[in-house]
Design goal:
With 178 residues, the chain is an alpha+beta fold. The chain has helices spanning 3-16, 36-46, 52-56, 64-67, 69-83, 94-99, 101-109, 111-117, 137-147; strands spanning 91-93, 150-161, 164-175. It has 2 domains: 3-56, no CATH class; 64-175, no CATH class. The longest helix has 15 residues, at 69-83. The two termini are 53 Å apart.
Length: 178
């Protein structure tokens, strides 16, 4: 029995027989069984059902990145002002970032906004495990920038802080090109 004969058999059965006890498969010319999902779509098409009803269920859901693009960019702009990052000076030393009390206060005051506009389920800052970085503000800052399409480059540089000359880690932030 070829594909056309099988489709005709399905049409004839659907008009007179309403029992669904026998599973029907459409066999292709290569005698292979078509998968269950394709079978349902083919049956719906040939039995007069509206195929668009099944397609509507597969509509893509918008992500937080798409929904809250402006709000996320606003948070990054505010952080850039607090940290002191701009287009010309896009780097900051890690020790300066750790001592920045304004940044820590901003994070505490805006946790609800951050959680609302970002998918934070896997972020270490919001974890219950200290090994994953629970409460680590620097980790949260890095994750925020990475989630907003920034690359962060870590570099060791010699510098003087508190009259102590040694190597310090500098973080350099670059916006990814789209």
């Amino acid at each position: 029995m070829n594909k056309i004969e099988e489709i005709n058999k399905i049409d004839n059965d659907s008009q007179g027989n309403t029992s669904n006890s026998d599973t029907q498969y459409i066999i292709s010319s290569d005698e292979e069984i078509i998968s269950g999902a394709h079978q349902i779509l083919i049956n719906n098409k040939y039995l007069g059902c509206n195929v668009n009803e099944n397609v509507k269920r597969m509509k893509k859901r918008s992500t937080k990145k798409e929904l809250y693009e402006k709000e996320r960019e606003e948070i990054i702009k505010e952080l850039n002002e607090i940290i002191g990052i701009n287009e010309i000076n896009n780097g900051i030393f890690l020790c300066e970032l750790e001592k920045n009390e304004k940044m820590k206060e901003y994070i505490k005051n805006n946790i609800k906004r951050i959680r609302k506009y970002h998918k934070t389920g896997t972020w270490g800052y919001f974890s219950n495990d200290l090994l994953k970085g629970k409460g680590n503000e620097i980790g949260l800052i890095r994750t925020l920038y990475i989630d907003n399409d920034y690359d962060i480059l870590s570099k060791l540089k010699m510098n003087n802080f508190d009259n102590i000359k040694k190597q310090y880690t500098q973080l350099i932030f670059y916006k990814k090109q789209k």
